[in-house]
Amino acid sequence: YHIMVDTNPILEATPTSTLAGLPTPAAPDVSQSFLIQGLDPATTYYIVLWSEDEAGNFSPGASGSSTTGP
User: Would you say 65 and 46 are in contact if contact means Cβ atoms under 8 Å apart?
Assistant: First the structure.
């Protein structure tokens, strides 16, 4: 999988970059988590997650936004 984080809306259909340090994907039905560090306070971030199959095909991006605390 690939995760992009930006302070501007992410409009790409596939990832043009990805966060470093992502864990290896777990087996199906096993939940995982990843902590995004180094975010600035009082800032809105846009986050998109894509999965990628063994053939290099990407899923549609799952997106959201969040504003960090003060």
Answer: yes
With a CB cutoff of 8 Å and minimum separation 6, the contacts of 66 are: 44, 45, 47
Summarised one tens digit per residue, pLDDT across range 39-50 is 999 999 999 999
DSSP string, 13-34: SS-SS--TTPPPPPPTT-----
Predicted local confidence at residue 25, as pLDDT: 87
| Inter-CA distances, 52 with 7, 9, 43, 56, Å | 24, 21, 29, 6
* Two tokens, residue 13: 């259909």
